[in-house]
Every structure is written in C-alpha cells, then in structure tokens.
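Please describe our next protein:
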Amino acid sequence: MIPIERALQIADEKNLDLVEVSPTATPPVCRLLDYGKFRYEQTKKERRAKKGQKTGLLKEIRIRPRVKEHDLETKIKIARKLLEEGGKVRVFVVFRGREVTHPELGIRALRKVAEDLKDVASFDGSASAESLSLVEGRVMNMVLTPVSAKQAQAKEPKVKEEV
C-alpha cells in the first residue's frame, strides 16, 4: 500500500494519471494509466460492440382494405427493402367505419403482401391463414421476418441442367 502523495508523485514523474479503479474496496485500488488513451479505447470497444449488435426494431407498414394495386406494390417494395436490410416488418390493415364488416378485403391485401414477399420473408405464427382473419379491434396484422441466405437456398428447387 502506497500513500496517495507518493502515488501522485510517481504518476507525475511518468506523465500518467492516478485513476481510482475500485473505490469501495478496502483500501481503495488505484492504477497509473494514461486516462485519455484509456477513455479512447473504451469508446472504441463500445462502438465495436454496438456495431455487432442487430437492432431489434420492428418496422410497421400500414395499408387500408380498399388499397389500390399500385399503392400496394409501393408498400411491398418498401417492405422488401426493410426485410433485405434484416429488419422485421409488421404489415397491418386498418379498418375505418363500415369497412370492418368486410374482413375479406383485409385478408386479400395481406395475402397479396405475403405472396409477393415469400422469397425474402418467412412468416411467424400470426401470418397463418386462420389468424389473418383475426381482427383485433379495427386492425388486422401479420409479422414478416427476413429469411436467411441458407433458408432461401433450401426453399428454391434445385434444377439440373443437362448438357
């Protein structure tokens, strides 16, 4: 155990900082280090760790039951882009007024989205045909998850070419 005055003197001689590592220990633990360099390396480590993480955000796309074909194609393009980037997409149909009495229109729209995105998305349990007809209040939804490259290759039928 070195007295604080002596530790500060040693740190000053070596152009380092005296940093308290564990203040709750008895006696407190301190280290001699270049604090600026230490902070720089810490932030670099944090950035690297953050870079490796996948953000678990769920993007949402809202459509109406009486959506026109071109508008639906635009929404499908947006969903495709989000899925290819690796994000989950929740597609939901919002019913207004008396539209809620015609759930088949919402089912048709969601099935069209599911069919067009089957090459880049797999559907969780909420996208089965039975649950598509499930209306939660005035909203009908399904969640699309991106397909990994291995799953996509497994889905595609292998065709032999004869020469």
User: Anything to note?
Assistant: Residues 125-131, 157-163 have pLDDT under 50 and may be disordered. The first helix runs from residue 4 to 13.
